[in-house]
Design goal:
The chain is mainly beta. It has strands at about 5-10, 15-20, 35-40, 45, 50-55. It has a three-stranded antiparallel beta sheet, with no helix packed on it.
Length: about 70
């Protein structure tokens, strides 16, 4: 089940939504607008026996300075 990040330009709200398939209706939880922008998210992938964060910053997640993404959230 992929989790996507969205931005609502109407009310400037950022939020996440689990999207089960392409028929899942996504609306802003703050203003109910369906005119949304999908944000580019950092993700991780398995490389050998380690999980590697695939973000533009070297080291940790995009949301903190930790080198262990399990501690970010």
């Amino acid at each position: 089940m992929p989790i996507f990040e969205y931005h609502c330009p109407k009310c400037d709200e950022d939020f996440e939504k689990i999207v089960f398939n392409d028929k899942t209706k996504v609306q802003c939880p703050k203003c109910n607008s369906s005119r949304l922008s999908k944000k580019v998210s950092a993700f991780s992938f398995k490389s050998g026996s380690k999980f590697v964060a695939a973000s533009s910053k070297a080291g940790g997640c995009s949301g903190c300075s930790s080198h262990h993404c399990g501690t970010c959230h």
